[in-house]
Amino acid sequence: MRSLKLLLFGLFIHFQVSCQTKSDDNFTTYTAVPKTEMGTQLVQNSNLIAQIFKDSTYTLTNGVQVNELSYLATKGYSMKTYVYTLDLNNPQISVVASMPHNKPEFAMQPMTGQATALLNPNYEVVGGVNGDFYDMTTGVPRGIFVFNGMILRASYTARNEGYLAVDKQNKVSLEEITNFDQQANQLQQAVSGGVWLVKNGQTVVQADKEIHPRTAVGITNKNQLLLMVVDGRNYTWSNGMNYEDLGDFMRSIGAEKALNLDGGGSSTFFINPNFAVNKFLIRNLPSDNGGIERAVGNGIIITKTK
């Protein structure tokens, strides 16, 4: 009887181990299949993406394209990203620093309101993103700020490492914040950023690993400007990125330089789908109060001369 019990026990253990081994072999494999050039760049140049759910691109106007991507990150997070690609070789395309009510006074206003205030018979307002970090009581930006040639703020903090510059000849660049004093009088527009994400085509290693909604700006060696938003703080919709993953993303789509901008609930990506109507549409899902657009201190807006 004892031998029979031992035999039955041994068969039971063998059955359990066999079942577990078989179950372990049935893991899910993911394949990232891009449909656009930008999606292909991300898959080929980074290890960020496990599976792509949506990869689409559309043109708002000649010289301005939008890519929208929904994917499962290799870290297991759902992600949704939105990217403008601006052809800066097109003389009709410009970027401007925006302020509430299009006035040189620090305040706060949602980006679609700032865009509406910019409407002008001389150019179309194509879309844009939010800009620099700011005081949430006064709207004063954390770093330097130049608005239509007016230097409204010339100081910055140690957390401002660079800035988006548009000179009086409409040349767009990303510059070191320490160069501002010598460049200020040549600038038409300037918006500060936070940490450098990409330098010389290489992702910058970051100590801060926190995941949040993010906004970033980058420039390519083809003279293209990249404006990017990733949604976050919503597990089933999109989780957000840390600085290093954001840098990998920007580098993978061609950025030679890239800067972090204000993120969190400020991250806003909006378009103007019909210039005849000028009804601005928010494409991302801001993290404040279930998607409500936050009033922000400043932004970066894309315009096209008529």
UniProtKB/TrEMBL annotation:
InterPro entries: NAGPA. One of its GO terms (molecular function) is hydrolase activity, acting on glycosyl bonds. Residues 124-303 form the Phosphodiester glycosidase domain. Keywords: Glycosidase, Hydrolase. Pfam families: NAGPA. PANTHER family: N-ACETYLGLUCOSAMINE-1-PHOSPHODIESTER ALPHA-N-ACETYLGLUCOSAMINIDASE (PTHR40446:SF2). This is Phosphodiester glycosidase family protein. It comes from Myroides odoratus.
